[in-house]
Amino acid sequence: MLILASGSPRRRELLQLITPDFEVAPSEIDERAVSAPTPRALVAALAEAKARAAAARPGDVVLGCDTVVDLDGRVLGKPADRAGAEAMLRAYSGRWHYVHTGVCALKDGLAHGFVETSKVFFAPLEEDEIAAYAATGEPYDKAGAYAIQGGAARFVTRVEGCYFNVMGLPVSSLYQLLRRLDALG
C-alpha cells in the first residue's frame, strides 16, 4: 500500500492525479530539530524524516514530502502572522525565487528520494495588493505565504520548472519514482 505521510489537502489532491490507491497517515516531527546547509538539503532531510516517522506495514511504500521557498538562499516557511506574510510577499515583488520540494519514498527501510526545484517570478506588487491578499487568510498555512493555485495566481508571471512542485508535489517526477519502485499497484 502507498502511504502519504502528509495531512496536506493539496498533496492528497495531486497524488490522486497519479493514483487513487493510497492511504493518508500524517507524520508528526519537530521540523525545527532538522537542519541542513542549504534549502535543497533541508527539504530532502525533512521529507525523509517525515517518511520515517509514519507508521508502515511490511511492503508499504511511505511517501514523505516537504516544500520550502528559497529567496536568496534563505528558507521562507509558513508565516507566523499577517506581518510575516506581507513581508514575504513584499520580498517577492518584481523578482525571482525558488520553490524546492523534497520527496522521499521509503520502501523496505530504504529511502528513495529527490528534490524538485521550480523558479517563480512575481510581478511588482503594490502595498494595497499585498494587504488585500494577506487579508484573505490564504497565506497562513502555505510555505512562502502564497498559493499559486489560489489568489496569488494573479501575481505569478512566470514559472520555470514544474508548476505542481510549487503547489507542493512534483507530479511527473513522483510518478516516475513510484513506477520504478513498483508502487502503483
Describe the structure.
With 185 residues, this protein is α/β, with parallel strands linked by helices. The protein has one domain: Alpha-Beta Complex (Maf protein). Helix content is 31%, strand content 26%. The chain is built from six helices and seven strands. It has helices at 9-15, 39-53, 82-92, 127-135, 163-167, 171-180, and strands spanning 2-4, 23-24, 61-71, 74-76, 96-107, 110-122, 156-160. Strands 1, 2, 3, 4, 5, 6 and 7 form a seven-stranded mixed beta sheet that branches. β3 and β4 form a beta hairpin. α3 (82-92) packs across α4 (127-135). It is elongated. The model has no long low-confidence stretch (mean pLDDT 95).
Major sheet details: 7 strands, mixed
**CATH topology grouping:** Maf protein
Terminal CA distance reads: 8 Å
**Name of the top-level CATH class:** Alpha Beta
Number of domains: 1
In brief:
With 185 residues, the chain is α/β, with parallel strands linked by helices.
Give the tags:
185 residues, alpha/beta, Maf protein, seven-stranded mixed sheet, 6 helices, elongated
Topology:
Elements: E1 2-4, H1 9-15, E2 23-24, H2 39-53, E3 61-71, E4 74-76, H3 82-92, E5 96-107, E6 110-122, H4 127-135, E7 156-160, H5 163-167, H6 171-180
Parallel strand pairs: 1-2, 1-3
Antiparallel strand pairs: 3-4, 3-5, 5-6, 6-7
